[in-house]
């Protein structure tokens, strides 16, 4: 059967192309409107989500809206934020926010990890000394091995596909199939130029795509840089082809269409005359063929030049992405690989048409891979690989290459398809092939724009300073006579938080399985618009929190802010650089040493840990209560209680679907029904105070999402994690009832037995610390006030607990381990939720 299959060349090629398209359609390459060289930093985020099955999830992984909690805090342990590499290392953690919150997954690791991912306890696997992979323990060797290996893979893999194409040379027999492949190649070139290279080739520093819309006139400010370089590429390739033809002494067209030969006036022997005529015909035909072949060889040369340049930018991207981390590198590698498949097939057809043998054509294509290899090496040697990659993309390289591709497809390849007497069926196949080439590039472009993380992506950027710089700074500090710490100048690492909505959380879908009753499809314009409004508001609030509050109170256990880019409505992007609480800030510290860590929600906190959290929280609350309202009004801006009420109402339905229909936990049905009256505006108003004074509290900044994944503990000299190191992820903060933070902390992160037995003791301790740290003693509260505020906060905490538990059910801190361990954790989670339902319903007499 295989013999017959290979005889049917069209069938075989069709299988290859269909297989390639299916492969492409299953890939998601990160965000985009950027070439891999510029977008690798964004793909990182997607990588963390998709690759996180393996466990690299540090940080906010993105889930639908609502607070679906997943280890979303800076999980600072060698898991989660563990993005240490050499140079600038970035890795993706993912901050998952929901309708207005973060989705967290408690990976019991350090940090920003909000995904159902399992991570190893160290960033990289250590190999034994007797292992042939032992050299990979060295970070520099590992970086070079991964980067060069990925580049070679991208170069070699398409060649294996070419081996299956039944073309050995440009023969009459192969003519029809070759024309189909040429058509596919021209479609690929045009698709690549118009769907990838030109859209990605934005002028440096310009994020407006050359279009500026002013309120006063809709004036358009056009930047012609990209278009100019595209035209430049077309003209340059035309000039090169002209020069080559002049040097070879060829005519303008390259196709010799000679006239009819004159008949001989005399012929003594008709047979000899015919032989002579046939001989001349053959010679003439051979000359025509040689000229045509020579013409195509110029095209092949131009195509190889364009491919070399294109491959060079791919190499820059791969090198820069592996500097960012292995998972970032893996995703970028896949992006480039699926992009190269249609390209290589088209290039192969052009080379065969040029007169190359199959073996020689494949060899020449491998030679162009030197462009990728050189780009990768330059990127690895560069002190700023990211900037180098972005400059290559935002400069002339991509549009110039696009111009070359357009020239080759329209001037050199498509005329070859027209310059023949093809049958109707052959013409149809060629047109289909052109559309297939364009369609394949479209699929890649489509996946590239719809595959990133959902609300925020978290990365660790790690710096490795030269010893010379360290020594010079130390000398300067010593000479200054001032009390300055080296680590305050030479930062070891930072956390990068990039808000974004692009991919609905896998965890949400794991529960609701694309249920039409669940309004979480971001392809729905209304849902997406709501999500974007949430992320915009959350991002602005968090930046303002750092700018106007935490920066003024460094003694509070909140990450430092190092920089930010405010949310841009048009480009829908923003950036926050904050302190990395997961790694030792000392310059010479071990980058894999666990310094700050998130503890898992189950089994939960011990009493010493709870007291440390409550002390930290009460100090933050008290400090915020003492500052003027105008310094914290940002926390309540754009809050619409009507819209929020709609979200709360929807959570009632989600709880029913999640527990009863999806998890088959029928014991929740009656409890959810009884709780229906709690899903109302009064429940919201009992937590969201705004500027109102209630139960003794006024103007307190509340975290509004306090659970295990947002609290880091510092490792003691004894190896214990009993002292809070920092509370992170403040994007859902509000002015309101501080007991909502405390109630959520106790309900989510302790056993029912402990909560019931120790509630009063914990509230009393909070009251003591809060009043002790108030600068304005007129704002002191009584224990009675605290009791009442705590009571009023319970319904909203219950609503979020009921919403979150079905998602926790599938998260890493639950499903990691043996089946017995998983079952025990799930049982504890369900019992904890059931008991909280019972206690709240009983207290409210429902």
Return the average pLDDT rounded to an integer.
Answer: 73
> Into which percentage range does the β-strand content fall?
5-15%
Strand order of the largest sheet: 3-4-6-5
How would you sum up the major sheet? 4 strands, antiparallel
Principal-axis shape equals elongated
Low-confidence stretches: 1-18, 20-125, 203-221, 252-271, 280-296, 447-454
Given helix and strand content, the structural type is mainly alpha
Terminal residue distance: 72 Å
**SS summary, helix count:** 24
Give the tally of β-strands: 11
Q: Please give the radius of gyration in angstroms.
A: 32 Å
Helix content: 40-55%
Could you explain the architecture of this structure?
It is a single chain. With 846 residues, the chain is mostly helical. Among the domains are: 2-20 and 142-204 and 227-253 and 288-449, no CATH class; 598-843, Aminoglycoside 3'-phosphotransferase, Chain: A, domain 2. It is 55% helix and 6% strand. The chain is built from 24 helices and 11 strands. The strands form 4 sheets. It has a 4-stranded antiparallel β-sheet with strand order 3-4-6-5. Strands 7-9-10 form a 3-stranded antiparallel β-sheet, covered by helices on one side. Strands 1-2 form a two-stranded antiparallel sheet. α7 (270-324) packs antiparallel against α8 (326-353).
For this entry, give a set of tags.
single chain; 846 residues; mainly alpha; Aminoglycoside 3'-phosphotransferase, Chain: A, domain 2; 24 helices; elongated; disordered N terminus
């Amino acid at each position: 059967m295989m013999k017959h299959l290979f005889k049917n060349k069209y069938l075989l090629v069709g299988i290859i192309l269909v297989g390639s398209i299916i492969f492409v359609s299953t890939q998601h390459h990160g965000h985009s409107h950027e070439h891999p060289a510029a977008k690798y930093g964004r793909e990182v985020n997607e990588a963390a989500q998709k690759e996180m099955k393996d466990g690299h999830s540090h940080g906010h992984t993105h889930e639908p809206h609502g607070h679906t909690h997943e280890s979303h805090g800076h999980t600072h342990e060698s898991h989660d934020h563990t993005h240490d590499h050499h140079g600038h290392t970035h890795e993706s953690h993912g901050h998952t926010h929901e309708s207005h919150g973060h989705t967290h997954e408690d990976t019991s690791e350090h940090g920003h990890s909000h995904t159902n991912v399992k991570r190893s306890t160290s960033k990289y696997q250590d190999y034994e000394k007797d292992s042939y992979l032992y050299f990979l323990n060295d970070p520099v060797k590992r970086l070079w091995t991964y980067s060069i290996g990925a580049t070679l893979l991208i170069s070699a893999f398409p060649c294996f596909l070419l081996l299956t194409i039944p073309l050995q040379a440009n023969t009459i027999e192969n003519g029809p199939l070759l024309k189909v492949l040429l058509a596919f190649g021209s479609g690929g070139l045009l698709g690549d130029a118009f769907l990838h290279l030109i859209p990605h080739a934005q002028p440096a520093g310009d994020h407006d795509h050359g279009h500026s819309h002013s309120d006063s006139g809709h004036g358009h400010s056009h930047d012609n840089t990209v278009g100019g370089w595209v035209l430049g590429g077309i003209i340059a390739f035309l000039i090169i082809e002209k020069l080559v033809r002049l040097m070879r002494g060829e005519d303008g067209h390259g196709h010799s269409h000679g006239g009819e030969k004159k008949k001989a006036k005399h012929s003594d022997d008709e047979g000899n005359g015919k032989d002579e005529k046939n001989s001349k015909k053959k010679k003439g035909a051979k000359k025509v063929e040689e000229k045509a072949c020579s013409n195509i060889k110029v095209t092949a040369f131009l195509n190889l030049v364009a491919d070399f340049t294109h491959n060079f930018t791919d190499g820059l991207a791969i090198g820069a992405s592996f500097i960012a981390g292995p998972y970032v590198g893996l995703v970028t590698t896949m992006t480039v690989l699926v992009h190269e498949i249609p390209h290589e097939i088209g290039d192969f057809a052009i080379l065969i048409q040029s007169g190359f043998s199959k073996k020689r054509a494949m060899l020449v294509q491998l030679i162009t891979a030197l462009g990728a290899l050189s780009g990768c090496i330059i990127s690895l040697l560069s002190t700023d690989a990211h900037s180098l990659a972005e400059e290559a993309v935002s400069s002339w390289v991509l549009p110039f290459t696009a111009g070359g591709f357009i020239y080759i497809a329209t001037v050199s390849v498509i005329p070859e398809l027209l310059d023949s007497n093809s049958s109707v069926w052959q013409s149809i196949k060629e047109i289909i092939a052109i559309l297939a080439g364009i369609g394949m590039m479209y699929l890649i472009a489509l996946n590239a724009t719809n595959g990133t993380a959902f609300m925020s992506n978290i990365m660790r950027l790690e710096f490795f300073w030269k010893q010379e710089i360290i020594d010079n700074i130390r000398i300067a500090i010593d000479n200054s006579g001032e009390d300055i710490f080296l680590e305050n100048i030479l930062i070891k690492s930072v956390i990068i938080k990039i808000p974004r909505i692009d991919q609905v959380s896998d965890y949400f879908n794991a529960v609701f399985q694309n249920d039409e009753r669940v309004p979480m499809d971001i392809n729905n314009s209304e849902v997406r618009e709501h999500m974007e409004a949430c992320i915009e508001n959350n991002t602005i609030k968090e930046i303002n929190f750092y700018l106007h509050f935490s920066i003024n109170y460094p003694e509070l256990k909140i990450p430092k802010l190092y920089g930010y880019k405010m949310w841009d409505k048009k480009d829908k992007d923003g950036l926050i650089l904050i302190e990395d609480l997961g790694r030792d800030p000392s310059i010479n510290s071990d980058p894999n040493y666990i310094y700050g860590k998130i503890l898992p929600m189950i089994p939960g906190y011990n009493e010493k840990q709870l007291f440390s959290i409550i002390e930290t929280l009460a100090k933050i609350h008290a400090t915020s209560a003492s500052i003027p309202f105008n310094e914290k009004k940002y926390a309540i801006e754009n809050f619409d209680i009507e819209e929020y009420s709609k979200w709360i109402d929807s959570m009632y339905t989600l709880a029913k679907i999640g527990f009863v229909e999806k998890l088959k936990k029928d014991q929740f049905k009656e409890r959810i029904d009884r709780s229906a009256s709690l899903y109302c505006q009064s429940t919201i108003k009992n937590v969201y105070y705004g500027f109102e004074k209630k139960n003794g509290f006024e103007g307190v900044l509340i975290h509004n999402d306090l659970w295990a994944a947002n609290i880091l503990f510092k490792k003691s000299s004894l190896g214990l994690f009993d002292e809070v190191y920092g509370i992170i992820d403040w994007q859902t903060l509000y002015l309101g009832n501080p007991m909502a933070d405390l109630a959520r902390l106790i309900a989510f992160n302790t056993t029912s037995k402990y909560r019931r037995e120790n509630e009063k003791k914990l509230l009393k301790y909070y009251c003591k610390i809060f009043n002790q740290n108030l600068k304005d003693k007129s704002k002191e509260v009584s224990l009675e006030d605290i009791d009442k505020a705590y009571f009023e906060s319970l319904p909203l905490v219950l609503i979020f607990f009921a919403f979150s538990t079905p998602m926790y059910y599938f998260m890493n801190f639950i499903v990691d381990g043996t089946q017995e361990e998983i079952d025990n954790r799930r049982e504890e989670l369900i019992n904890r939720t059931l008991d909280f339902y019972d206690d709240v319903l009983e207290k409210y007499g429902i």
